[in-house]
Design brief:
With 487 residues, the protein is mainly beta. The protein has helices at 2-16, 23-26, 44-47, 455-461, and strands at residues 65-75, 81-92, 100-110, 116-127, 130-144, 149-164, 169-183, 188-205, 208-221, 224-238, 242-250, 255-263, 268-277, 288-300, 304-320, 323-325, 329-341, 345-356, 367-381, 386-400, 405-408, 413-416, 422-436, 439-449, 476-483. The strands form two sheets. It has a 22-stranded antiparallel β-barrel. Strands 21-22 form a two-stranded antiparallel sheet. The longest helix is centred in the N-terminal third of the chain and has 15 residues, at 2-16. It is globular and about 60 Å long. Mean pLDDT is 83; it is low at 1-24 and 321-325.
């Protein structure tokens, strides 16, 4: 009966299920440079399925489950129209020892301001000596700006292989292909990207890994096309307190050293590194060498949790027309969190900060800092049969004035047009979940807060990252259902 129910649910989802890509709702800055695919300007969430589909729990075959998220949106173009968009995730793990395999599916049809339609599939097979994983995603992104509407029709495929050739020799490989057709009112662009990756790892001892990695890309970007190749030989040592890593980033024209040294004595850590980063979709530009430092601490006790982190990095050399130029480009990041833990609730406050001294295309985003304060709670009701947990918090978001910021839909990047004052916005978020055995129902509400504004601000305008966007981050509400039906 359970198997019949599973296949019925799978059939229903194939015929009529839709899933919401919540990136446009749950995050203030959608196009964060740190969330992009290497060498591309597109977010990882556009080119690969969500992390949930790549989680495979073979220790418990009853991990099979289904999830439905229903978002309530209001579309100004249709008057006060209540638009609904569902989010369905289905995961299936059969009894198949010693062969293990799982199938995960996701479907999207979000009809909000920046609409999304996507279909994701992940198939995973694991045996004693390795695993193989295939993924497919097909999403139709639409960005509504003040001057035009831009469509991004993305088709993505990938294959990952992990194989233990010997007890101390491991082979990793992947092939992915992305076909991105970008269309707006004036132009049509095509990004055709093929990427291959292979890595051989040798572990003579548990704490030592020697490896060789090879990447090959082939781009077709409008009227430009060509290959990009990188080779990384390296060695890594990882102990309880000390981690060290040395590698070389080799391309047909340049050599960049990569070095890491990290110490973790108790709750403190310090991590120094040098690395190189490539310009996105710039086939003729060399990589930028940079160096950085991370440091921080983590402390956890019965009633207190404290974490703090700081990172700074600096691009000290750039190659242009065969000469060395001072790039004068550095960025700073800082974050911290404190939690006071009680029996049934935690009070917490956390903050994050980001600053870049020289605004470079592809590395800038308007968000400067987020301050958050709230409470997480858990309640056992109905003689322990009902578990209620939730999170309510208020956020103060500090960012550049949207009137000073423009957005380029071709490169999906922000530009600071002129230096101006910073803007602060308030936002309140509420998430409540009720658990009954293997069934979970959750409500999620988020809204900007500004006194003296009318209903249009809350429903349509909200918090802007750039004045180019037609709508900002406005009010939304959602309902989520999750069921581990095999247990």
């Amino acid at each position: 009966m359970k198997r019949i129910l599973i296949f019925a649910l799978l059939l229903i989802t194939l015929l009529s299920a839709y899933e919401l890509n919540t990136d446009a709702w749950g995050h203030y800055t959608v196009f964060d440079p740190d969330q992009r695919v290497a060498l591309l300007s597109y977010p990882t969430s556009w080119l690969k399925p969500g992390a949930t589909l790549f989680e495979h729990n073979y220790e418990d075959s009853s991990s099979t489950y289904g999830k439905w998220d229903q978002i309530l949106a209001i579309d100004e173009n249709n008057g006060y129209y209540f638009g609904f968009s569902g989010d369905i995730v289905v995961k299936y793990t059969p009894y198949s020892f010693p062969h293990r395999w799982s199938a995960s599916m996701e479907f999207v049809n979000y009809k909000g301001t920046n609409s999304t339609q996507r279909t994701d599939v992940v198939l995973h097979y694991k045996h004693q000596k390795g695993s193989m994983e295939y993924y497919h995603t097909s999403n139709d992104q639409r960005l509504k700006l003040n001057s035009l509407t831009t469509d991004h029709m993305i088709r993505s495929h990938g294959l990952n292989v992990d194989y233990n050739l010997l007890e101390s020799v491991r082979i990793l490989g992947s092939i992915d292909y992305n076909l991105i057709e970008q269309v707006d009112n004036d132009t049509s662009r095509t990004y055709d990207v093929h990427h291959e990756f292979i890595s051989v790892q040798y572990n003579p001892w548990k704490s030592v890994t020697a490896y060789a990695k090879y990447h090959y890309w082939y781009y077709i970007n409008e009227d430009r096309q060509g290959p990009a190749m990188l080779f990384f030989p390296g060695i890594r040592y990882k102990g309880k307190i000390l981690m060290s890593h040395f590698s070389l980033r080799l391309s047909p024209t340049t050599v960049h050293p990569i070095f890491e040294l990290a110490l973790t004595p108790g709750p403190f850590y310090i991590h120094a590194y040098t690395n190189a980063r490539s310009s996105r979709i710039a086939l003729q530009q060399s990589a930028h060498q940079y160096m950085g430092l991370k440091t921080g601490l983590k402390f956890d006790s019965k009633h207190h949790y404290l974490s703090a982190g700081f990172e700074g990095n600096y691009d000290f050399v750039r190659v242009s027309a065969g000469s060395l130029l001072n790039n004068d480009f550095y960025s700073l990041k800082a974050s911290g969190e404190y939690r006071f833990k009680m029996r049934s609730a935690d009070l917490y406050t956390k903050a994050s900060y980001h600053h870049t001294n020289t605004i470079m295309e592809g590395y800038y985003h308007p968000e400067r800092a987020i301050l958050t304060a709230g409470s997480k709670f858990k309640l056992h009701l109905a003689e322990g049969n009902l578990l209620l947990d939730g999170d309510i918090n208020a956020q103060y978001i500090i960012h550049d004035d949207p009137d000073d910021v423009s957005f380029n839909p071709s490169t999906l990047s922000y530009t600071l047009d002129q230096a101006g004052g910073l803007v602060g916005d308030w936002k309140i978020n509420l998430d409540i979940k009720a658990h009954v055995k293997t069934f979970t129902i959750a409500a999620n509400v988020s809204t900007p807060v500004k006194f003296g504004e009318n209903i249009n601000y809350y429903l349509y305008e909200g918090i802007y990252t750039s004045s180019d966007f037609y709508y900002g981050n406005a009010f939304y509400a959602g309902l989520s259902l999750e069921w581990f039906w095999w247990k």
